[in-house]
Amino acid sequence: MATKYFGTDGVRGRVGTAPITPDFVMRLGYAAGKVLVHSLAQNVKGHPTVLIGKDTRISGYMLEAALEAGFAAAGVDVMLAGPVPTPAVAYLTRALRLSAGVVISASHNPFHDNGIKFFSASGNKLPDAVEAEIEAALEQPMDCVSSEKLGKARRLDDAQGRYIEFCKSTFPTALDLRGMTIVIDCAHGAAYNIAPHVFHELGAEVITIGNRPNGLNINDGFGATAPEALSQAVRANKADLGIALDGDADRLVMVDGEGRIYNGDELLYLMVKDRLAVGPVDGAVGTLMTNMALQVAFKKMGIPFERAKVGDRYVLEVLQERGWLLGGEGSGHLLCLDKHTTGDGIVSALQVLSALKRSGQTLAQMTADIKLYPQALINVRIPAGYDWKSNAALQGEKEVVERELGDSGRVLLRPSGTEPLIRVMVEAPQAEVAHAMAQRIADKVLQ
Q1: What is the mean pLDDT of residues 270-275?
Q2: Which residue in 59, 99, 105, 107 is the catalytic one?
Q3: What is the pLDDT of residues 155-166, one digit of tens each?
Q4: CATH number for the domain formed by residue range(s) 11-158
Q5: Where does 264-366 sit in CATH, by number?
Q6: Which residues belong to the annotated binding site for Mg(2+)?
Q7: How far apart are CA 295 and CA 307, in angstroms?
Q8: Is residue 107 annotated as part of the catalytic site, yes or no?
Q9: What is the C-alpha to C-alpha distance for residues 446 and 378, in angstroms, rounded to an integer?
């Protein structure tokens, strides 16, 4: 079902440009509130309650106030969690038996972007059908309930502490991290005052970088989208490992003691391998972007593997349809559904660390038997509304490259769900071949 405002990860854009304006966000809160009130009318006495969390962007203050006003006008109470990771909102919404959770974040994007994403009462991202209901409500005039029915707002005490304890609970009680030195890169984002405590309280010596947010520096040269800073810090401090999160802490990239960077595909492989050592694994889910090496490796291991559309919500949908537990994306969104309902960078890091502790191996040793295919990705910015699918030169070049690759690689063209970009991805046996082929196709995007 096509949506006007919702993309693969909620409503997102540049602050001050529609739809990320205070007036629209207030109307969005009102529309979402009306949908909630209507859907819960038979089951909830009193007002529905939603939890609002945010990352460290300066625009979060403005958008939080706008959302709060919209929900109150619809007769919905609000609990304010302050700066917490996206997966913390999912957990707290479920743990506190609330009606819904809302996150103000643009994840890995720069500070001048922001977005709104919703979680259901069960801690899952909203189904497409509910997003469509909210969009339909947005087309109606904004009203206001009578004064005695207005919603109220209050702060949630110790939201960070509650989430820290939850994260720790996903790590085996028989294990600890004593003797390990870990560098944690918080991307100047939502986990800056959470992630260091989790790993320190489990026994690690923690060195933290990217933990001085000022509203403008989120994801800027730090975090999962810029892991080179973590690699340098690990080597400089002679640490055992490094953990990089993104601005809202739902992504994970790791670094070993040599400074080598491990992406989400390699970490998913490690987690599946660890689970297989203690029992059966029903299957794993990747995306259209997942490296071919995983597909080949899982086949050899006798583990079914499926590809979902790009976006952790679609990985989650396939996992739920199949009744499987493990999935993820190369970007670092990793799902362990027996630990959490959504992708969580901190929880995923703890699953990797428990695997290393159980095996007595390093990251390099546990992933030595998988070699990722060289993968070239080029992002091409396109004008709004550009019909790239009708570009004959682009489609023709794609077909030529696919014939040249045969069974030894892949080509994927897809639009970004959050930015006006076409992503051109090529996998090939040699990196230089992949890059050259990707560039050939990218050159045709705007022809």
Answers
A1: 97
A2: 107
A3: 999 999 999 999
A4: 3.40.120.10
A5: 3.40.120.10
A6: 107, 246, 248, 250
A7: 9
A8: yes
A9: 13
